[in-house]
Amino acid sequence: MSTITDINTAFPIRRLIRVGLLAAVALLMSYPLLWLVSSSFKPESIIFSDAGFDLNHFTLQNYIEGWNKLGMPFGVFMLNSAFICLLAIVGNLFSCSLAAYAFARLQFPFSRTAFAIMLVTLMLPMHVTILPQYIAFQSVGAVNTVLPLVLPKFFAVDAFFIFLLVQFIRGIPRDLDQAAEMDGCNKYQIFWYIIFPVCRPALVLVAIFSFLWTWNDFFSQLIYLSSAENYTAPLALNLFIDATSGESAWGMLFAMSLITLLPLFVLFMLFQRQLAEGIATTGLKG
Amino acid sequence: MSSRKSGLSLDRRQLLKVSVGGAVALWLGLGEQALAANGRMKVSWYGGQDTHERMQKALKLFTEKNPDIPTTVEFAPFNEFWDRLPVQYAGGGAPDMHRHSMTYLYSYIKRGLLADLAPYIGSTIDISQLYPGVVDIGTMNGKTNAIGNNQIAFALFYNKEKLDKAGVAGTLDNLTWDGFREISIALGKAGGDQHYGTNDSGGVLAFLELFVTQRGKSLYAENALGFEQQDLVDWLAFWQSMRDEQGAPPPAVTSESAGFQNAPMVRDMAAMQTGWCQQLVFFQALMKQELGIHACPSPAEGPDNGHLIRALDFWAVPARSKNVDKAAKLIDFLLNDEEAIEILGLTLGGPASDKASDILSKSVDKTSVMVLEYLKDLRAHASKKTPGWIAGHGELESLLKRLNESIGFAQATPKDAADEFFSQAVSILR
Predict the structure, then answer these.
(1) Which of A199, B35, B271, B318 has its CB surrounded by the most CB atoms within 10 Å?
(2) pTM value?
(3) What integer pLDDT is reported at residue B34 of this predicted model?
């Protein structure tokens, strides 16, 4: 610790340059985001004609109008999104960890083959499965509900998460399992008392990624949710822009986009440490 | 220890129960709801927020007048609508009645996906007031698979102030192609550096269609192109001559002009813009200076000015729909009911009948009235034909756009580009 401060005080100019450079790059990278923020506070008419950051025309109009523009408050769409995300997280945590436990610890016939098949599904583009899946859900009348979006999550369809957890569980010393077995735990109890709690960093990662991917998902939500009151935030944002009819509410789109980004931002702030920890311990690092 | 253990194990069972039970409850609860919705007629369309609001209002009125036909609605912007619809058709969940676009209509008809509405025409669907082309354009081999919901035409928009300043305001009457070029160049030069006469429309297939129609040909004949290679060479060379002298912007500018808000005219880089007539309203909304609308250039002589007034959007019903009769009733309502016509305004396009035109000219704003007047005047001079587009039109459109661009970048001559277009068109239209 002391050596670091020594270096920093010894070469203040070098440090200044380094920090300045990093700040400049960070600013450059966040330019689109900053532009989004500043544009959301501008009147529609000057967003494109006046591309700078000047806030002389500061207005909250985009937020006020945009919130109710789509016939119902934008909060409805946010809640729809949040509901789907919540179920997706619960589903993934529950099913993927169980599946991963089975692959990593249990011995059953064809376990290696099953594992390989599971990995192959990782490479399967979603467009291959979407049609058969749609037909299945249509035939049970579940289209235009959240079921097609969340039910699969309870059956461990996200092979990536299973793989991630398998890698993590393989790193847990088997001594722990054996000790639990000595104490009389059966396989389920070993999972529940030993594996599941120890997996916490990886599970946090699964939860956060489930949230991110579900919150940002567009295509499957577009296919399955067809009536406006079931729309999620991304689908609702999409309604602001129609390329063919010319009436595009960019200002409101930006304002509502920013609101949609807020949960992600807060989440990242809260879980920044766990996220880094999870990535460092699950073998996700490069 | 043991008590703690049993407590936790209870938690686990609870968790299991909650997740499994929850999933089942969800399945049952929502499934029932979905089943309950099955008796309703599902109506769907694409468009912007204005279209969504007006259509919902019109449908509400329809349900008031027909309480025995409950409806549900679905809507999305154009691109997303067409991402979803094929999946719905394949999965059997297509809406009972929906808006269809000329871009895709013929591939849907060819695959037999749309119901024949001919039995309902004259009885349920009153077509006596509609313009003749409205039904013809969706009719093939005696089957009417789609009925137009509007009629529109191509047009030239102009910035009045800029035309006055350049002293060319009076020259729009009886505009010829040479005259169009002269005005464009004069306007570009009058504006100075980085200013052009009009947008580069060399890549607009609908405008090319107008050009070949004026030469007595058509865009398509059966399943092939309906014009000669030389026509396309002339067309592409015309636009190159525009770009050469500031009549039209270079391709670098054009490639940045997607979307109404980025059009050269809106960005104050051009004085004119071509487009579908109702787009005048969209452009005017983005600009302070007053816009005008005029017919596109045409040859000095000829039986008509080659403009086509026709439907580009339709109402269509899937062949598998169980509610075809109800859908037909709704189509009739949207086309003929006076209140519905007023509610819809120009959001779907120009009016489909004189009756609608009269109703609208009393109720819409000034710019929209200009569109109505334009269509009314045009009817006296336009071609009587209402040719449709065939499958592959969208692909040809992007091909033409790309080729026009490569001429602009001096990577190809008009001759090369026309060769390429014709050879590729063969495989696209096969």
Answers:
(1) B271
(2) 0.81
(3) 42
